[in-house]
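Workshop exercise sheet. Pairs work together: one partner reads the sequence aloud, the other fills in the structure field after running the prediction. Swap roles for the next sheet.
Pair: D.N. / O.F.
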Amino acid sequence: MDTDITLVPWENVYLKGAEHEAEVDFDAHLKVDTPLASFLAVATRICEFV
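Structure field:
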């Protein structure tokens, strides 16, 4: 299958992201020691380099 994929960090859709970053740790779920959290952490980092 040849399909284009656009990766958009979920933070981009959060309207008041900068305002709430001081109050909420948006990456806390990525720091949990579980296979799913590890996978999501890698997937999130890949978006930064694409």
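Discussion prompt: The helical segments are 17-21, 35-49. What would you look at next?
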